[in-house]
Amino acid sequence: MDTNSPSSSVLMATTNDDLLDDFLRLAAAASVTPQVVADLVDLRRFWHTGSLVVVGRDLAERLARVQPAHRPNVVVVGSAADGDDLYRSAFDIGADVVCRLPADEPLLAGKLADALDGSPRTAVTLAFVGGCGGAGSTTLAAAVAVVGNRRGFRTTLIDGDPLGGGIELALGLERDPGDRWPKLLNASGRVGAAALRSALPSVDGLAVLSWDQSDVTVLPPDTMSSVIGAAQRSADLVVLDLPRRADPTVEEGFIRATATLLVVPCDVRSVAAAKRLSGPLRSVAGDLRVVARESRPGLAADDIAAHLSLPLATKLAIDPQIPTAMDQGRFALRRRSPLTRAATNILTLFTPTTPQPPHPAHPSDPAAPRTHLTATPAQPPDRTPRPRT
User: What are phi and psi of 265, to 5 degrees?
Assistant: First the structure.
């Protein structure tokens, strides 16, 4: 193989044919064409060129002797027969990961997929669930996604409830081309981030994964995990609308979320239902908070949070125009509406003040603005003090 110039974002360095065969097999499965070098000179020469460097055990010790400059995304690959020297060499060259093949093949495959997707992103992932039926969690999830998208965050909205009404109906996307959950039913392992985003329906740059009108109502946990992972690698903000159901598939969403927002109407029966749900949620949600939705007459938001022993994320006042708008497939968010205000408060809690630098242009990005969404740009971030957690 020609080593005069870098030919890939992945560099593989080894003289061991068995390691090379295993690596090339994994690279082919990930659609990665690596640059392969077989000596220390070329390894040092191209040390900083790729987004990922994979060093075989045979060259790792030799490289450690010359003390290479530190760089991220270095993997040392060996076999189950290698002793502690494998880890010592990895430490000396500043490697992030040690993979013993074949046991650690999934880990190495994941590193290859990350290299293909580009530099890793850390998407803020917010899960929404109703404390009772009809709590309004789907409406709030859609509002947070729309407002986040309008604020410049690369956003993906995922409807995780096969028995719900379908979030794309509220957004007016039901006739738009693109993949829905049933098309992704067999997804497992690593799903390409760019491939997923390009396959989804989108409006004004907001990518939406929802359900079609088929009879598919069950997803394997691996599918949910893989799809959320791909969305997180291609976005600044991922919003999950999840059902009030305890099963391994739904739990994947709560586990992967940065925070879970439990939407609770401010009445006694709703709070009682939310109390029963909050226990199981605590076991899978790392950061669980309550959104108190106003009722008339109703309980105080602070009292609800105290009764549930959860931090209060924000209050949500009644917006009588929203249900009609959603039924008509036009998710209209007025700039000063209660829903926009609550969505903005939530985003202020969990997102940075500015989005991450955008990905390079991708065919999935819309060439021109779409008009399904009628939300106005979000107002400046709320400067009220954040609740202490």
Answer: -65, 150
Check whether 3 has a pLDDT greater than 50: no
- Residue 172 structure tokens: 């007016």
Could you give the CA distance from residue 130 to residue 290 in angstroms, rounded to a whole number?
A: 10
Spatial separation of the C-alpha atoms in residues 228 and 193, rounded to whole Å: 10
Whether the CB-CB separation of 263 and 293 falls below 8 Å is answered with: yes
Which of 87-101, 113-127, 278-292 has the lowest average pLDDT?
Answer: 113-127
Which residues, 6 or more positions from 14, have their beta carbon under 8 angstroms from its beta carbon? 20, 23, 36, 38, 55, 56, 58, 59, 77
Q: Is 284 in contact with 261 (CB distance < 8 Å)?
A: no
Q: What is the mean pLDDT of residues 43-71?
A: 88
pLDDT at 5: 40
Element (H, E) at 60: helix 57-65
Distance CA 323, CA 67 (A): 64
Residue range 164-175: mean pLDDT, rounded: 81
**Which range, 38-42, 361-365, 367-371, is most confident?**
38-42
C-alpha 385/C-alpha 357 separation (Å) is 27
Q: Which residues of 141-170 are buried (b: 16+ CB within 10 A; e: fewer)?
A: bbbbbbbbbbbebbbbbbbbbbebebbbbb
Burial degree of 41 (CB within 10 A; 0-12, 13-18, 19+): exposed
Q: What are phi and psi of 53, to 5 degrees?
A: -120, 125
Q: Using one digit for the tens of pLDDT, what is the confidence trace for 129-169? A: 999 998 999 999 999 999 999 999 999 999 998 887 778 88
pTM (two decimals): 0.67
Concatenated DSSP letters for 99-167? EEETTTHHHHHHHHHHHHH-S----EEEEEEESSTT-SHHHHHHHHHHHHHHTT--EEEEE--TTS--H
